[in-house]
Amino acid sequence: MTRPSGFDPKSLPESNSTSYPEPYRDGGSNRWYRRVGDHAGLKNFGVNLTRIVPGGMSSQRHWHTKEDEFVYVLEGEATLVTDAGEEILKPGMCAGFPAGAANGHHFRNRTSKDVLLLVVGDRVREEECHYPDVDLRYGPDPDGKYGFTRKDGTPY
What we know:
The protein is an all-beta fold. It has a single domain (14-126, 136-149), classed as Sandwich (Jelly Rolls). The protein contains one helix and twelve strands. It starts with 30 loop residues before the first strand and ends in a 7-residue tail after the last strand.
C-alpha cells in the first residue's frame, strides 16, 4: 500500500546535526532543518526546510563545484552574505547559486525572530565544496574517499 503524497513538512522531526569537523561544528548549532525531500522519497535533488534562530547562520560560507543550489525565503528576514557583500532577503525573495560559480554564500539571521528557508539542491555524488572563510574543504582525499579535509588535503 502506498502512502499519501501530501504531508505537512512542519510535522517532520527537526535536526541541527552537522557533519562539519571540529572546530566548525558550532556553526550549525543555531540552524535547524527538516529533510522534506527525503520524506517525499526524492533521489535526484534534496529539499530542506531550514530554520535559523536569531543570531544563527545556515552554514559556513561555501560554494559547490557541481551542485546547483536554490533558496526561497518563507518567513523572517535573512541576511545573504556572498563574495559581493550582504543583502537582506525578505519573505517571497529567493537566491540561486549555479554549480561552479566561485561565490561563497550563506545566510545569517540578525533579527529577533526565526528565519525559515526552503533550500533545494542537486545530489551529486562526486561533489566538491569550498569554504573561503575557514580552513575547510569537502571532496576526495588523496585516497579518493569523500569527506571534509583542510584546504591542503590533510584530514581533521
